[in-house]
Amino acid sequence: MNKKHLRQQVQIKLNAITRPEYEDKSLRIAQTLFNEQNWINADTIGITISNYPEVDTYQIIRKAWELNKQVVVPKCIPSEKYLDFRVLEQFSQLESVFYGLFEPVVAKTTPISKDKIDLLIVPGLAFTRNGDRLGYGGGYFDRYLVDYPGQTVALAFHEQLLPMLPIEDNDIPISKILTDQGIID
What we know:
This protein is an alpha/beta fold and 185 residues long. The chain has 5 helices and 11 strands, in the order H-H-H-E-H-E-E-E-E-E-E-E-H-E-E-E.
């Protein structure tokens, strides 16, 4: 099975989740994250700005700020296929870019090196129970993770778990996956 077909299948499953289910599941995942030792110990959290129907990260960002954690979000640099994580102190420092995604405004945020990020919450469209990940096709996170020294975790709805994925040499597995039905590590 090819990656494009898998992405389409998972997207259909995600689109079938009702808004109330989405809210409940996102909350359960966030609460699980807040009890994780990696979260508790982290001073700096790397996270993406969710785009529905991805697991809601806005509530996670608000909670991090409430706990005086530093939040850093990625800015995609398409010309270099690179992620530039930048410190986010308020949502008004975001702008809508391609595909309706929100990224930090460069003029309003400061960059941070990857060795300063304690916990990186890695996005994905599908995952296996052993941490394999199917991203959105750009390879940005796989390149970023090559020499990332911190902890990784993914947030996923149960519908995003698959028995297997086509894996390539450059695909880097995630240490732990938090779902609405429990923790996979």
